[in-house]
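Practice problem 4.
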């Protein structure tokens, strides 16, 4: 029997190879999973659970401002606010969705939405259509490096039509809200609306916070000015939450740990004392997970509102002075030859400390829309505008003459017109004959000052002959005037102070003009500093607006303890003998207190004493309407400086009325203002002394009554003890 051959079934060799490879791959995968889980498992778990700490600074209210009598001038007015805090990684589409929901609950002004905002919003809402704005050829150029990615975006923006950016009112509101969302920084609350938030809006948002991710209700603040516009320009402005940090100072503030949307002082006192008023911001450390969700928050620093400023200003005196200026402007504007009169200034300061008691300025302003004129605050004009001040500076001329040996106390000159060859005769408003330095100040002799200036220049006057002087005489006089603060910045604690203008011509006649205050220009604040230096016996004091800095306290109705006193600063001592200064003081006494003095009519019969110097300067109008005239228009500036009481000064003042009238004679507005502000100063002083006396007597009476009650109680206790 033939055995049948057994058939061998075998898997093809290649299939075995394939099975082997699969086995190897699975083995490698299992090995890899084991390594990942066993060796690196903890690392990956930590990565999944990874958190990030982000510290956020939250703004606090600014410090307040008070006047020297602790009357509140600037406060923080609380405002209901709706905020948005963007978490890290929030998508733009998510912000748009939230903005659409919020737009149904609140009204948002859309006036700040720009055309560019609309185009960006259109791209966000229509990504596919936006893609079609770019051609394949342009995309290829980007790939090949011929164009930047940003260039494509610019092309998209340029190709969006006006028709495409037309939005309904509701869509505009959504965009306005989204715009606020997008301008904020991660984990930093951004104000969406803080003006005119109604109670209904506040309540609706509060009820729907669960469906509005990132949105919250809060309290913001705004600056509130107790005295409305009074001194507001000097107090300064604060940026809004929308403005944030000023672009010109961005790096400065960022280096000092400010956030870009922080509100800061933009001008004057608010800006000058930003570090004091800003306060200590609250610091919160937010812990976020990988998705940007806040999983924990920790307050690092509670923060506190800014420190308070006690200003040197007396608001009762300030308000009264402004009323006086305004009343005088209205009255004098009705007179003839006053078409250029539009402003007046008053500075009052303590001559011993430099504390500015009053910094008042008013001017007419015309509304460009209605054409109507109104009188507005122009206190800043005391440091930002300058004028020729006339004879008010003659005290500096006389003292310069003493210092240079050009004259001595008691030197006489014959007052008659000077006739210099090639020029018009120059003289005083009257020929006073043979007069000394005291009489020259009393009657305001120009000729006496001319002769003093000629001697300072080392020149020799011969009638009808040329007058040859050295140009260095100008520097000599200006350097001396600078000792008083004339022609240089006073150093006041306010930015943007101007120094005035110096004439460039050096002819003999201009030197004589300089000697009587009719050449260089000075600010009203400089004039006040100058007369203060004479009043206090020779110290040029630094004017300042801040008297004290106070720490904030929790009780909003109370003032905190004094953190810092602003001490008086002597900028320089006049390089003059004491008897010289006293001599000029005597001349100023005669101006106001002696019959024949140019200010005697206004101060001679007062219950208080004043030392003063009047001034009138021939000038040219260079105000806001100067371009309306083809030729320079001649006008007169009138001024008055002084201090009181004459023998022991406690207040110095400067009154400046530019472009007061046309022609050589006119009203006496500067003297009338001077009289009224001094009357007001001493009336206020009398009223306060009376009130202090009454308060003291009341306090004493209470102590006596309390003492009697204590004695009575003690007697009753003793009697009770005896009975026991």
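Answer key:
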């Amino acid at each position: 029997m033939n055995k049948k051959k057994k058939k061998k079934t075998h898997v093809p060799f290649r299939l075995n190879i394939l099975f082997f490879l699969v086995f190897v791959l699975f083995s490698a995968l299992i090995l890899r999973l084991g390594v990942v889980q066993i060796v690196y498992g903890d690392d990956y778990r930590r990565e999944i659970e990874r958190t990030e700490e982000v510290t956020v600074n939250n703004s606090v209210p600014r410090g307040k401002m008070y006047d020297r009598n602790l009357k509140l001038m600037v406060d923080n007015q609380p405002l209901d606010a709706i905020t948005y805090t963007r978490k890290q990684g929030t998508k733009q589409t998510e912000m748009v969705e939230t903005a659409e929901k919020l737009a149904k609950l609140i009204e948002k002004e859309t006036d700040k939405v720009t055309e560019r905002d609309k185009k960006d919003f259109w791209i966000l809402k229509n990504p596919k259509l936006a893609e079609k704005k770019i051609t394949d050829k342009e995309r290829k150029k980007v790939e090949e490096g011929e164009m930047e990615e940003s260039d494509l975006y610019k092309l998209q923006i340029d190709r969006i039509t006006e028709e495409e950016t037309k939005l309904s009112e509701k869509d505009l509101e959504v965009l306005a809200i989204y715009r606020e969302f997008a301008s904020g920084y991660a984990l930093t609350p951004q104000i969406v609306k803080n003006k005119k938030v109604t109670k209904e809006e506040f309540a609706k948002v509060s009820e729907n916070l669960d469906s509005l991710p990132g949105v919250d209700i809060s309290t913001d603040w705004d600056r509130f000015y107790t005295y409305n516009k009074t001194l507001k320009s000097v107090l300064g402005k604060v940026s809004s939450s929308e403005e944030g940090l000023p672009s010109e100072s961005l790096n400065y503030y960022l280096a000092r740990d400010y956030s870009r949307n922080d509100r800061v002082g933009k001008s004057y006192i608010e800006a000058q004392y930003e570090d004091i008023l800003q306060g200590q911001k609250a610091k919160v450390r937010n812990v976020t997970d990988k998705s940007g969700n806040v999983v924990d928050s920790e307050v690092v620093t509670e923060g506190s509102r800014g420190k308070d400023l006690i200003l040197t200003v007396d608001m009762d005196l300030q308000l009264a002075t402004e009323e006086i200026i305004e009343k005088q402007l209205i009255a004098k504007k009705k007179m003839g030859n006053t078409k250029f009169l539009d402003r007046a200034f008053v500075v009052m300061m303590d001559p011993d400390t430099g504390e500015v008691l009053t910094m008042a300025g008013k001017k007419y302003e015309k509304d460009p829309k209605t054409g109507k004129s109104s009188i507005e605050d122009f206190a800043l004009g005391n440091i930002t505008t300058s004028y020729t001040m006339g004879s008010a500076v003659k005290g500096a001329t006389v003292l310069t003459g003493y210092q240079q040996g050009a004259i001595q106390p008691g030197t006489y000159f014959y007052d008659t017109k000077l006739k210099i060859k090639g020029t018009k005769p120059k003289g005083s408003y009257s020929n006073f004959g043979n007069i000394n330095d005291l009489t020259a100040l009393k009657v305001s002799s120009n000729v006496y000052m001319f002769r003093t200036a000629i001697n300072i220049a080392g020149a020799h006057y011969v009638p009808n002959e040329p007058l040859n002087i050295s140009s260095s005489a100008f520097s000599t006089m200006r350097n001396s005037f600078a000792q008083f603060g004339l022609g240089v910045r006073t150093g006041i604690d306010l930015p943007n102070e101007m120094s005035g203008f110096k004439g460039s011509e050096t002819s003999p006649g201009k030197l004589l003009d300089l000697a009587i205050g009719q050449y260089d220009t000075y600010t009203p604040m400089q004039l006040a500093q100058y007369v203060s230096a004479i009043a206090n016996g020779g110290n040029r004091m630094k004017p300042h607006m801040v008297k004290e800095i106070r720490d904030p306290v929790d009780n909003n109705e109370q003032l905190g303890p004094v953190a810092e006193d602003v001490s008086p600063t002597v900028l320089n001592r006049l390089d003059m003998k004491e008897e010289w200064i006293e001599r000029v003081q005597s001349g100023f006494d005669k101006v106001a207190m002696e019959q024949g003095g140019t200010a005697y009519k206004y101060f001679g019969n007062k219950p208080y004493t004043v030392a003063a110097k009047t001034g009138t300067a021939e000038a040219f109008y260079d105000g806001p309407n100067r371009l309306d005239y083809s030729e320079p228009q001649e006008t007169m500036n009138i001024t008055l400086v002084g201090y009181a009481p004459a023998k022991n000064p406690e207040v110095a003042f400067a009154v400046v009325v530019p472009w007061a009238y046309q022609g050589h004679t006119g009203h006496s507005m500067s003297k009338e203002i001077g009289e009224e502000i001094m009357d007001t100063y001493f009336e206020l002083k009398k009223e306060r002394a009376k009130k202090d006396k009454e308060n003291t007597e009341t306090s004493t009476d209470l102590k006596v009554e309390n003492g009697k009650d204590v004695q009575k109680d003690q007697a009753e206790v003793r009697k009770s003890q005896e009975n026991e």
